[in-house]
């Protein structure tokens, strides 16, 4: 059960929040667990089973900046003098032809920002934006995702969950004035990053995507007809690391398979891998320019709206969405995304330009097995990444056949209106 207490001075927002909750319900969220009430304080209070979130805003008098988050709509700061309070979110800061939403990441205190075309908002629009932020916080979206969806919601009807890429703000990749810096941007000339375009990957030729930890598994699965595989060796000090990577790449070439190397992009370049997969934190230290110039496909992990919008500016070969369900194969900083969010991410991605078409290839990952695969596949993703479902199976061949049946049960239609087959 989640309880939202609305300050009595903004009691009219109760109806606004109820409206957003109804939109969320129509899109699959379990809003029956959310209760609305009124608070005598000047702050919003969102209570969960194990914690409480206190949210303030300058739309209420008197101002009370205490709390976990303070949403600053009305104060018109100079761009380079936005508040430095850790809990403050500065909204609609105007700089030239663009406006910015600027905040601090709640865990590491780094500054983050969204940019969008400059368009002044009236008081009623501030309240509509606030109702979205409060509702999304109650649905346990992180603040960066709340801000991205709330800003996009200002450009669609009140009955609609935003899914069009054109409506969403763009994460700021680098701005020295705000202290926002991406290490990998230092590789490029000014504005070069916007022209990155990693090698095309046919979404209909991805098929099942096992993630394994040895070249032995790579060979075994390639022989069973799997076409796309990732080698993920967690220990960088493993004695035969380079040999494992070289052999896996060679096996991919031998069997005409799409073998991706997780993390070790230098070795992937050295031996001419088909592709590389990187996590969000790994992007900072990888030489993206070299990977692009080598024609190596690049897959990137995402865990929500902000990361998805951020990496879409890098133009990778595919986007991984996860983790969908709880998983024990890797320690995750984010919560499981679930099927409702996965479906919404997929709807958004279908509107993003990708080479000469729309819609990046997508790979769902995290806790997927034969029982959950049909539900995940119905969200419209291009591929299912599996780990334990394969590596712990007593009969991997039978498990592969099970996934093949699931992924071929619905004929997908390509942009030309023709039925397409997926490989495994």
Automatic annotation (TrEMBL):
Its EC number is 2.5.1.3. The keyword Transferase applies. One of its GO terms (biological process) is thiamine biosynthetic process. Pathway: Cofactor biosynthesis; thiamine diphosphate biosynthesis. GO terms for molecular function: metal ion binding; thiamine-phosphate diphosphorylase activity. Pfam families: TMP-TENI. This is Thiamine phosphate synthase. It comes from Vibrio sinensis. The lineage of its organism: Bacteria, Pseudomonadati, Pseudomonadota, Gammaproteobacteria, Vibrionales.
